[in-house]
Amino acid sequence: MSDTKQQLYTACQTYVQQRIGTCQAAIHTAQESANSETKSSAGDKYETGRAMAQNERDRNAVQLHEAKKLLAELERIDPDKPCDAVRPGALVRTSLGQFYVGISAGKLAIDGAEYFAVSAAAPIAAALSGKRAGEEATFNGKKIRIEAVE
Where is the composition biased (Polar residues) (predicted)? Predict the structure, then answer.
């Protein structure tokens, strides 16, 4: 396996772990906020503050669940397994750019080169799925030549 492919896999892991950490911290902060609300003479103000904190906690819990799903998706990939066709775990060099098929983590820079980490369900990955080096695919009306698959 190429060093670049391993670095991309590691960058995706870091991305997901940061999202999980951010969500967990936000949940903790929202819970503390809800717990610190005290009854006041304003009456409804107490209930409104607690409800807002609970809504924030719930919103972050949904984001945490999504981040954990991304982690599970990433963990299904064997970064050491060579790829001769586009599938999850493949590093694909095309006439349109370089893609790492794993999770949707956006643009990643490795050794000064730009790569796009995309989910296997992303439209570009779906268009390239199963293709090999030297083949072409069409995406958004454009022909894309697959130069290499690792």
Answer: 30-41
